[in-house]
Amino acid sequence: MSAFYREKVLSVQHWTDTLFSFRATRDTGFRFQNGQFAMIGLEVDGRPLLRAYSMASANHEEELEFFSIKVQDGPLTSKLQKIREGDTILVGRKATGTLITDNLIPGKRLMLLSTGTGLAPFASLIKDPEVYDRYDQILLVHGCRQVSELAYGEELVAKLRDDELFGPLLSEKLSYYPTVTREPFRNRGRITDLITSNQLFTDLHQGPLDIETDRIMMCGSPAMLEELKQLFETRGFKEGSGNTPGHFVIEKAFVER
């Protein structure tokens, strides 16, 4: 158990029957880059029960925040969804992940494409002043099935727009595009289709996909990631990694359990 920090739960918010977020204390020794994830979980019968979770808090914040799905028979989330203020969670001492800006070739527009709780690493990244220094435009896309599942992201962006530091940055550079697939909403459709049809860019009054200027980060369901990877690769985009920066990066450590 020495591989983990023991952190105290500070607050829990249930957004829907299937989504919740929680904040916890942060050990001063825990370091991470915005966009990374760590193994977190609970001690069950004296042993750690863990899953990979992206930090939804930024690395300059004193507390940790996580955004999670609820799976009723999931080994971890069936228990984690019941945590309350004052409970203890385990946080792995080492953060890692591919969704960091150094893994991308320099560009002008950063597209953050997410579904469901795949929004979490981008919640961290849009609170990073350096990201706004690197890019002229940041496009945050969040796809869900139902409108209610957008609540976490909508509140996140609204709070940042009211923030003294980030408000001016967001108004100048961030475009937020929530979309749903199964209910009426101002934006409808799957992210892949919205990009292929150029509807996404038309709605935002922006130019179409451009390999010269666009850099992309993706986090979400495995099916969405595979579709988008194929879409970008057929247009000449190359996947980046810690060894070789590219046009796009994917986070594969997605929590579904």
Automatic annotation (TrEMBL):
UniProt keyword Oxidoreductase present: yes
InterPro entries per the UniProt record, alphabetical: Cbr1-like_FAD-bd_dom (IPR008333), FAD-bd_FR_type (IPR017927), Flavoprot_Pyr_Nucl_cyt_Rdtase (IPR001709), FNR_bac (IPR033892), FNR_nucleotide-bd (IPR039261), FNR_type-1 (IPR051930), OxRdtase_FAD/NAD-bd (IPR001433), Riboflavin_synthase-like_b-brl (IPR017938)
UniProt KW keywords: FAD, Flavoprotein, NADP, Nucleotide-binding, Oxidoreductase
UniProt GO BP: cellular response to oxidative stress; heme catabolic process
Residue ranges annotated for the FAD-binding FR-type domain, each copy included: 2-102
Stretches of the chain forming a coiled coil according to its record: none
Positions of transmembrane segments: none
Catalysis: reaction(s): 2 reduced [2Fe-2S]-[ferredoxin] + NADP(+) + H(+) = 2 oxidized [2Fe-2S]-[ferredoxin] + NADPH
Enzyme class per UniProt: oxidoreductase
CDD domains registered for this protein in UniProt: FNR1
EC number: 1.18.1.2
Pfam families assigned: FAD_binding_6, NAD_binding_1
Cofactors: FAD
Record keyword Magnesium present: no
One GO MF term: ferredoxin-NADP+ reductase activity
Family: Belongs to the ferredoxin--NADP reductase type 1 family.
Protein name: ferredoxin--NADP(+) reductase
Protein's organism: Bradyrhizobium pachyrhizi
